[in-house]
Design a protein that fits this description.
Blueprint: E1 3-7, H1 20-24, E2 30-32, H2 41-50, E3 54-59, H3 79-96, E4 100-103, H4 114-134, E5 138-141, H5 157-167, E6 172-177, H6 178-184, H7 188-194, E7 199-204, H8 220-230, E8 235-238, E9 244-248, E10 254-259, E11 263-269, E12 273-277, E13 283-284, E14 296-301, E15 314-315, H9 320-326
Parallel strand pairs: 1-2, 1-8, 2-3, 3-4, 4-5, 5-6, 6-7, 7-8
Antiparallel strand pairs: 9-12, 10-11, 11-14, 13-15
Helix pairs in contact: 3-4, 4-5, 7-8
Length: about 325
């Protein structure tokens, strides 16, 4: 069964970002998110340690996110800024023990033609791959669909793989986002299988809507079985926009659910708490610390799945007022 990491940028967004870690601890070994940079290394480290979580991925700095930038690796006049961002990312990754960093290449400005944008991407990735290799960190590059991010410089898996070949580094790999590639090209199973040696990280969400597996057209039980059968041993980031909450339960084994209206994909756990698809999320008031971790996924048909009672009171380990002051809108919107 694949290893799942909660994407803290997409999930649990009704509580401040630093509280997302406590919510993820109920069913995940690992987490990922877009950017650590608005927060101090010490407080992120504390969140990870207190909630027994491993941070498996974050991105290089990507320019002015709130202004619509989605990376700067394609911009010839931002090379110095890109290189400085690589150094900053390495500082965070080393301290937080992150094994890999993703590069969003960005949207070329009107004055940058396609050839110049591509050559700038190649040069920047070659620099970043070399610097990260010295630090023992893998570099990833991610194609993103042109519907959600119009003008993004890499849209298809083949384009990402072509850039990887042009860079010529043994420390540059593909981040394969199932949702993005379903929108752009389909052929998910064949593409993953063919390019498995180049794929170091996978992300998931269903289509349409970028919600949980089971809410759309993608056959996730089949894809999970495929990943097992071909020996994929990396993480699968749950970068889906569905809402997930904790509900205190009985002591018998429960499940972590990424639920749709008809199908619930369940990650089995042996603990007291479970995730549900709900409008409110976070730790249910009075819930005990979870005891289990996910170890298997199965599919079951249910009628009206994922509509439990809503929790209106939540507990937390962190100072919410402090976290709220530092919370940034881009942690919950404009995802890559």
């Amino acid at each position: 069964m694949p290893k799942f990491a909660a994407n803290l940028t997409m999930l649990f967004n009704e509580v401040p970002f630093l509280d997302h870690f406590a919510a993820a601890d109920a069913g995940f070994h690992a987490v990922e998110f877009l950017f650590p940079y608005p927060y101090r290394i010490a407080e992120l480290s504390e969140c990870l340690q207190q909630n027994r979580l491993k941070l498996v991925l974050h991105n290089l700095p990507a320019g002015n996110w709130e202004a619509g930038e989605r990376g700067i690796a394609c911009l010839p006049d931002r090379v110095t800024e890109f290189q400085e961002g690589v150094g900053r990312a390495i500082e965070y990754a080393r301290a937080l023990k992150v094994p890999q960093l993703n590069c969003l290449v960005g949207i070329p400005t009107a004055d940058v033609d396609a050839d110049k944008a591509r050559s700038t991407i190649v040069d920047n990735l070659r620099f970043a791959a070399a610097e990260l290799k010295k630090a023992g960190i893998r570099l990833l590059v991610e194609p993103c669909n042109a519907y959600d991010i119009p003008g993004f410089a890499l849209n298809r898996s083949g384009e990402g793989l072509d850039v990887i070949r042009a860079v010529g580094s043994d420390n540059l790999f593909l981040q394969y986002d199932i949702y993005h590639m379903q929108r752009m090209e389909g052929e998910l199973a064949a593409t993953i299988k063919k390019n498995l040696p180049q794929i170091a990280h996978i992300q998931l969400a269903d289509n349409p809507g970028r919600n949980e597996p089971g809410t759309g057209e993608i056959n996730y039980p089949f894809l999970f079985d495929l990943l097992d059968s071909i020996g994929y041993d990396g993480w699968v980031g749950c970068e889906c926009a569905g809402s997930t909450s904790l509900e205190a339960g009985a002591t018998r084994p429960r499940t972590t659910s990424l639920a749709g209206p008809q199908t619930t994909l369940e990650i089995q756990t042996h603990g007291k708490d479970r995730f549900h698809r709900a409008r409110h999320h976070g730790c249910a008031h009075g819930a005990q610390p979870p005891q289990g971790r996910p170890h298997a996924v199965r599919e079951r048909r249910v009628s009206g799945a994922g509509r439990p009672g809503q929790e209106h009171e939540r507990g937390g380990r962190f100072d919410r007022r402090r976290a709220s002051r530092r919370y940034r809108h881009h942690h919950g919107a404009g995802h890559a």
